[in-house]
Design brief:
The complex is a heterodimer of chains A (about 675) and B (about 700).
Chain A (H helix, E strand, L loop, with lengths): L7 H14 L7 E5 L4 E10 L2 E6 L2 E6 L3 E5 L12 H7 L1 H7 L3 H7 L5 E12 L4 E12 L9 E6 L5 E10 L5 E3 L5 E5 L11 E6 L8 E11 L6 E6 L6 E10 L8 E5 L10 E7 L17 E6 L4 H11 L13 H11 L1 E2 L14 H7 L1 E2 L1 H14 L3 E7 L19 E7 L5 E4 L19 E4 L4 E4 L9 E10 L5 E9 L1 H7 L7 H13 L6 E7 L9 E9 L3 E4 L2 E5 L19 E2 L4 E10 L4 E5 L3 E6 L2 E9 L6 E10 L3 E2 L4 H15 L2 E6 L1
Parallel strand pairs in A: 6-15, 19-20, 26-33
Antiparallel strand pairs in A: 1-2, 1-5, 2-3, 3-4, 6-7, 7-13, 8-12, 9-10, 9-13, 11-12, 14-18, 15-17, 16-18, 21-22, 21-24, 22-23, 24-25, 26-27, 27-29, 28-29, 30-31, 31-39, 32-38, 33-37, 34-39, 35-36, 36-37
Chain B lengths: L1 H18 L5 E6 L4 E9 L2 E4 L2 E4 L3 E6 L20 H17 L5 E12 L5 E11 L9 E7 L3 E11 L5 E3 L6 E3 L7 E2 L3 E7 L8 E10 L11 E3 L5 E12 L5 E5 L3 H4 L2 E5 L2 E11 L17 E5 L5 H14 L4 H11 L5 H15 L1 E2 L1 E2 L3 H6 L3 H7 L1 E2 L1 H14 L3 E7 L18 E7 L5 E3 L19 E4 L4 E4 L9 E10 L5 E9 L1 H13 L5 H12 L4 E7 L10 E8 L3 E4 L2 E4 L20 E2 L4 E10 L4 E3 L6 E4 L3 E9 L5 E10 L3 E2 L4 H15 L3 E5 L1 H5 L1
Parallel strand pairs in B: 6-16, 12-22, 21-23, 29-36
Antiparallel strand pairs in B: 1-2, 1-5, 2-3, 3-4, 6-7, 7-14, 8-13, 9-10, 9-14, 11-13, 15-20, 16-19, 17-20, 18-19, 24-25, 24-27, 25-26, 27-28, 29-30, 30-32, 31-32, 33-34, 34-42, 35-41, 36-40, 37-42, 38-39, 39-40
Classes of the chains: A alpha+beta (about 675), B alpha+beta (about 700).
């Protein structure tokens, strides 16, 4: 006969009943007095104007009129368990988790701060639309750096969903069991400052005794009701930064509901999900690497969406909620002016789409309110453009950093960004993003470039275009004039486009005085004692296609005298190679958006000096990136050295095999920037 | 008559039935969010609220109802009414004029009027009336109202709020759009008492005037005399009329102190209004301040007034010291634990070191505040030990308990960290954000801070240095010393062999003390061992791109008893530049920069957490076939705030060089009057430390 292990949720259901039968007197109530004192104990009786309690094993009485409030401890499963042995007797789940010795686990996972012993999620979907996620976790703390794992939270929408901690237990290394205290739990609003967006809450709590050797157990339940407008979606990645002995998702669904559930998987084993169970054993510990692709792109992943829908249905449902493909009357206003109207006069609220259970506000509402989320601003922009007679559609997008969409499970959650596609009469498209006051007309955030999106007009999945490196450029030119004492007067200009420009436009928030101080720090760069002489800049409020800054400054000691030589390096030219510091990597390379940097330096020696030595020339090229740089003495001008460098990257990903060449180029670039230039006195 | 009596009794019973059981009224909230109000009783598993009976397991919270009102003498303070059109027009004009002097400001705070009132029945009222002129997008935040209060003790009420566009169109905030919510906090902080009343004033655009007035009423203060008004008269926007009225019942004495106020504004204008003595401080046409790098906290530079009803510290010492005393416990379990922790340690210092290290590592940081007493004194030591988590106050209580259990005197010491501005201590005023410990090993006082996780005894966190600490149990206010620079040290002894091809082989041995040591230890403790080499390799790229780490050893980062040491061996592909007959070498990680000295002039002091010392000795084996062209002159700077000595010495045979440099930051604070000298010295040090040693090929080398 085949033995089938009972799912832990069923074991727990039995435990739940049993636990209440065996329920002991609870401790852990907090009594707060009017005078500001507090006591933790057990309230025994409240009568005749007195509160009688056991505090630290001692009987205490408080006049009731002096009691400000009493916080009761919630009854939870397994409240009566006092030792590891008690738990082990209740269910094999506990015995299995408590079985391995900490030392053995440390030997097996020497890098881990915690090891997940079991992580079981049970999803129950009913034909009525009701859904429930129960999650049971057990983990062992192996080192101090794992202590933060005791801090947990569960997001939910009050009034629509329920969230509950079934139990939170800590088995100390000596076997004593500590129970989650309600004083260490808070139900808080995530957007309390903004009544218009105040929907999402989180239940936040901390388990006791998270010290090395402790085993922590947590069971939570999250319940709600699904519909096409508010579907149930589980998006689970099975590898995390802590190694896991076992991680699973079990789907319990009524037969008649089975066809209404969409699932999509990636990177999982063959036959994954058979019998509604997705399980990964010995999930490895993930080590973050610089420029690493999102975990979702290579780790086993499962998406469950209920009710099942097609992408056009998702698009239609969203548009219905968001006020349809509205048009607001703006006849004759050019697109750039409408874009600037949204950019400058609609305050951006950083509230993600998934925090709005009723969907985004309609464009007319956003216009009247004068504020909106990224998605609401995009919807308003499209409506204004349509009102002016332009063809404009909204595309809901997924940032590439969030990993692939997994399009076979159509769903709204996961599409967190929004861009607007503006089509001219000649068919030319301009993509606009209203995600920031600093984003200019036709600029897209690097995060969405090349990412997937849902075209709300057609209900089809599309790819957001990638801007060419020339549109994402930083052009820097520097001219330095050396004096015989090694000081230098430097003139520098910066021209920025794309995300370089957007990043810099934040300076618009500064006052003129603050901006001057910023400029002084900027030109100070690698040195000390640099005096800013002049600073001008374009008007960042305009979000110009190209932003310009120019500086003039005096450096106290650019060059050093050694005998008859003047020795110097390029001023403020260092580029970091720390992100390619490691010599090998485990994962492929990943970037967001393209980039181009053009740099020129002209260094003029003082009269009577000639160029003695300059750095070399360098050319490196890889799949999707290139570097060309050279130092040269100016043949037409005595005592003048020129440096030119162009770095360009259009690749968004590269296999890890390409890392060595990429690293080599980046390090070579960094070294070249530090090369010395030598002038000699004639 | 009897009949009448019976009727009266029946009537009384009926009346009682309407009112419900007697006793203080509570609002009881169940776990599923239902609320019931009435007298509270409990017997076994039954909880009675008024006439309703609940199962105890259903009940989440019971809060005593208190009347959310305060008794006030009539006419105590002026009402807060919307300003007239003429007044607003004058403000607009004045605001434009002052804004022209500070171009680029987000807004101007035209009216900044506060009233702090202590009512005769001990309630606290704060009323505020503001008018802003919005000048830039960022200034639209003036239209966001987020007003905090504590359920069951206080409440907020918005009198009115409106925006006035340049064309005179007025949009009022609909009070129905205001919402109360429990605000979120960051992961390590948990206070379930706080609520916010939030709303957004409609129509706030650039060039709008925004006007609002609200009232905060603390109708149920923990301690009625804990009335501590504070008011700041400057911000990062210009202020036109900044006024605070503090009203106390007639005859009640008020203590106060001012900071950064011009002499003429320091003394309040006093008046008597309807049973109150009113004290008014005011300033007008105050320009915004512009932040500077490494400047002190805002509270130290802006004009401010702080008030208190106390003229000595006795009450504050008595109450908070009392809470602390109650919480310091030496139960048998705590004594046993303390003995286990100190093991066979003999001296007080050894015992204290063991306790200090244990508390740092075994009580995880989690701040749970539920009342005035836990706010100032945390929780009983046994409770914190049971939970395994606590905040600075809890850790100080646990440390004091464990120390006491092994015969060492220790007290919690409350302070304001030096990154949060100097605490007000010249009048009795609760002004603190942290709690550390005053310990007396062998009777000698010293401070330690067990909220850290990586500090080796007796070093303690640098943000505690140089501040005032209040020892409530002993009734003392003490200065926390600023340790000397060598107590925050990085000493690096390095060897570098330069090869003729420009490559180099380096060995670096570092030792640390103080905060420097704790920061290095904390970083490496957070990194999984398998990533140590990668991380070091990454770090090395900053000093020498392309460097390859060939060996990396750390002493045991987990063992707080032993000083941390680090040894790195690495190969540098481009340690020097060879160009023509020159070989130019800059020692890696040798240069200093001083970003705090980036401005040509400063208005505010430079403030750093503590002093610091960095010593480096580098032995360089010179590249064969090359000779040094000129030996750099040594540099010595012995300033008031900076101390530096640097030298390069060549061995008699010319085959090696010894480079030495020591930089000390001698003080925490550089006042503006010392800045010019400081910058000049910093520039000289930075210039010298950017060493470029030029070697030239010798004849032998050339022939080779």
């Amino acid at each position: 006969m085949r033995h089938t292990r009972l799912p832990f949720c069923r074991v727990l259901s039995a435990l739940f009943v049993l636990s209440f039968l065996l329920f002991p007197a609870l401790g852990g109530e907090a009594i707060y007095l009017q005078s500001g004192e507090e006591y933790v104990g057990t309230v025994e009786r409240i009568a005749k104007g007195q509160l009688h309690a056991l505090v630290g094993g001692q009987a205490q009485t408080f006049p009731l009129d002096q009691v400000h409030r009493i916080e009761f401890q919630r009854r939870r499963l397994l409240d009566d368990a006092a030792t590891a042995a008690d738990l082990s007797q209740r269910a094999p789940f506990f015995a299995e988790a408590l079985g391995p010795k900490t030392e053995d686990l440390r030997r097996r996972f020497p890098q881990a701060g915690v090891v997940v012993l079991a992580d079981e999620t049970v999803v129950t979907l009913n034909a009525s639309g009701a859904w429930e996620i129960k999650r049971f976790e057990a983990w062992r703390i192996l080192a101090d750096r794992g202590a933060d794992s005791a801090m947990r939270s569960l997001a939910y929408f009050p009034g629509r969903q329920e969230a509950e901690v079934l139990f939170g237990l800590t088995v100390a290394p000596d076997g004593a069991v500590g129970h989650l205290a309600d004083t260490a739990m808070k139900d808080e609003a995530l957007y309390s400052r903004l009544p218009a967006y105040n929907f999402q809450h989180r239940l936040r709590f901390t388990l006791k005794g998270a010290v090395p050797g402790a085993t922590l157990f947590l069971a939570t339940a999250h319940r709600g009701r699904a519909s096409l407008l508010e579907p149930f979606v589980l998006d689970e990645v099975f590898w995390e930064e802590a190694p896991a002995l076992k991680r699973s998702v079990r789907l319990a669904v009524e037969e008649k509901t089975r066809d209404l559930v969409a699932t999509a998987t990636a990177n999982g084993p063959k036959d994954w999900g058979k019998d509604g169970l997705w399980e990964v054993k010995d999930a490895p510990q993930l080590f973050r690497e610089p420029r690493m692709a999102p975990v979702e792109s290579f780790a086993p992943r499962l998406v469950i969406a209920y009710p099942k829908a097609e992408w056009p249905d998702v698009a239609k449902a969203f548009l219905e909620r968001a006020g349809g493909a509205a048009a607001l009357p703006t006849k004759g206003v050019p697109p750039r002016a409408l874009f600037d109207q949204v950019r400058q006069s609609i305050r951006l609220e950083r509230v993600p789409l998934e925090a709005l259970p009723d969907g985004p506000a309609a464009p007319a509402t956003t216009l009247v309110r004068g504020y909106g989320t990224r998605v609401e601003r995009a919807l308003l922009l499209a409506a204004l453009l349509r009102g002016a007679g332009h063809r404009a559609d909204v595309v809901l997008a997924r940032g590439r950093g969030d990993g692939p969409l997994l399009g076979t499970a159509p769903r709204l959650p996961g599409l967190t960004e929004a861009v607007v596609r503006l089509a001219a009469a000649d068919g030319k498209e301009t993509w606009l993003e209203a995600d920031s006051q600093d984003r200019g007309f036709g600029e897209l955030a690097p995060e969405v470039q090349g990412g997937e999106g849902l075209d709300l007009a057609t209900g089809k999945l599309v790819t957001i275009p990638l801007a060419p490196p020339a549109a994402e450029a930083r052009v820097r030119s520097v001219e330095a004039e050396l004096a015989p004492d090694g000081t230098a007067t430097v003139r520098e200009t910066l021209k920025l486009t794309g995300h370089f420009a957007a990043d810099l436009r934040q300076l618009k928030d500064l006052t003129e005085d603050q901006l001057q101080k910023w400029a002084a720090r900027y030109v100070g760069g690698d040195g000390t004692g640099v005096d800013l002489l002049e600073f001008t800049h374009s008007d960042f409020n305009n979000a110009n296609a190209e932003e310009r800054l120019s500086f003039a400054y005096r450096m106290p000691m650019l060059a050093e005298k050694a005998g008859s030589f003047l020795v110097l390096r390029l001023p403020n030219a260092s580029v970091s190679a720390t992100d390619v510091g490691r010599s090998t990597r485990e994962r492929d390379l990943f970037w967001e958006g393209a980039e181009r940097e053009e740099t020129t330096f002209v260094l003029r020696a003082p009269a009577g000096y000639a160029v003695y030595a300059v750095g070399p020339k360098l050319e490196k090229k890889g799949e999707g990136w290139s570097l060309a740089a050279e130092f040269a003495a100016d043949p037409s001008a005595k005592g003048v050295v020129r440096f030119r460098e162009t770095w360009e990257r259009s690749a968004l990903t590269a296999p890890k095999a390409a890392y060595a060449a990429y690293r080599d180029a980046r390090i070579a670039r960094s070294r070249l920037r530090g090369e010395v230039i030598v002038f000699v006195k004639e | 008559m009897k009949r009448l009596a019976a009727v009266l009794v029946l009537l009384a019973c009926g009346l009682a039935a309407c009112i419900g059981p007697s006793g203080p009224k509570f609002v009881v909230e169940t776990w599923d969010g239902q609320k019931h109000a009435g007298a509270l009783r409990m017997e076994g598993d039954r909880v009675g609220v008024g006439w309703r009976t609940l199962n105890r397991e259903e009940v989440a919270l019971a809060v005593q109802e208190a009347e959310a009102t305060a008794r006030q003498a009539a006419g105590a303070v002026e009402g807060l009414q919307p300003l007239s059109d003429a007044e607003l027009a004058r403000y607009r004009e004045r605001a434009k004029a002052i804004a022209a002097k500070a171009p680029g400001s987000d807004s101007v705070l035209c009216l900044d009027y506060g009233q702090e009132i202590l009512t005769p029945d001990g309630k606290h009222i704060y009323r505020y009336h503001a008018v802003h002129l919005v000048l830039k997008e960022g200034g639209r935040k003036a239209g966001d109202l987020t007003l905090g209060f504590e359920e069951g003790r206080s409440r907020e009420r918005v009198f009115f709020a409106r925006s006035i566009s340049p064309d005179g169109r007025v949009q009022w905030l609909d009070p129905a759009t205001l919402e109360v919510a429990t605000p979120s906090q960051s992961a390590q902080f948990l206070d379930t008492r706080g609520r916010v009343l939030s709303g957004r004033i409609p129509g706030v655009e650039v060039d709008s005037l925004v006007e609002y007035a609200y009232e905060y009423l603390n109708y149920n203060p923990d301690v009625p005399d804990y009335f501590f008004p504070s008011f700041y008269f400057q911000g990062d926007e210009a202020f036109l009329d900044s006024v605070i009225d503090v009203a106390v019942p007639k005859g009640r004495k008020l203590n106060w102190t001012t900071r950064n106020m011009p002499p003429e504004a320091r003394e309040p204008k006093r008046s008597a209004r309807g049973g109150y003595d009113v004290y008014r401080w005011e300033m007008h046409d105050i320009p915004p301040y512009t932040p500077e790098p490494a400047m002190p906290h805002r509270s130290e530079i802006v004009p401010a007034v702080h008030c208190s009803l106390f003229f000595d510290w006795n009450e504050l010492h008595k109450r908070t010291g009392g809470y602390q005393r109650e919480r310091i416990e030496t139960t048998p379990d705590i004594v046993a634990l303390a003995k286990k922790i100190v093991g066979d340690a003999k001296s007080d210092d050894e015992k204290l070191a063991a306790v200090y290290h244990w508390v740092q590592r075994n009580v995880n940081y989690m701040s749970i505040k539920g009342s005035l007493s836990s706010g100032w004194a945390g929780h009983p030591a046994s409770e914190t030990l049971r939970n395994g988590y606590g905040d600075c106050t809890d850790k100080a209580i646990v440390l004091a308990s464990l120390a006491k259990a092994v015969g060492i005197v220790a007290y919690p010491a409350i302070l304001q960290t030096n990154d949060a501005g100097q605490a007000v201590t010249d009048i009795p005023f609760p002004d603190a954000n942290h709690c550390i410990s005053l310990v007396l090993p062998d009777g000698k006082p010293r401070f330690i801070d067990s909220t850290a996780t990586d500090h080796r005894y007796p070093y303690f966190r640098s943000d505690d240095h140089g501040v005032k600490a209040i020892i409530h149990i002993t009734g003392q206010i003490l200065d926390v010393p600023v340790p000397p620079p060598q107590d925050n040290l990085r000493e690096s002894v390095q060897e570098l062999a330069l090869k003729a091809d420009g490559t180099g082989e380096a060995v670096e041995k570092n030792a640390y003390t103080g905060d420097y040591e704790a920061a290095i230890r904390g970083f490496w403790r957070s990194v999984p061992p398998a990533l140590h080499a990668h991380m070091m390799q990454q770090y090395l790229q900053r000093r020498c791109p392309g460097a390859a780490c060939t060996g990396f050893q750390l002493s045991d980062v987990d063992d707080l008893r032993k000083p941390l040491t680090m040894e790195i061996r690495y190969r540098i592909p481009g340690a020097a530049t060879r160009t023509r007959d020159l070989y130019i070498f800059s020692p890696p990680a040798f240069s200093h920069d001083f970003p705090e000295a980036s401005l040509q002039t400063r208005k505010f002091p430079i403030e750093r957490p503590t002093t610091q010392e960095m010593r480096t000795t580098l032995q360089v084996a010179c590249p064969p076939g090359y000779a040094l062209v000129g030996l750099p002159e040594p540099l010595a700077v012995h300033g008031k705030h900076l101390w530096f000595e640097g030298s390069v010495a060549a061995a008699p045979d010319g085959k090696s060089l010894t480079l030495r440099q020591t930089l000390k930051y001698l003080t925490r604070r550089v006042p503006p009057e010392d800045y010019a000298e400081y910058r000049a010295q910093a520039t000289r040090i930075a210039g010298w430390s950017e060493l470029k040693l030029v070697f030239r090929e010798t004849k032998t080398g050339a022939e080779k």
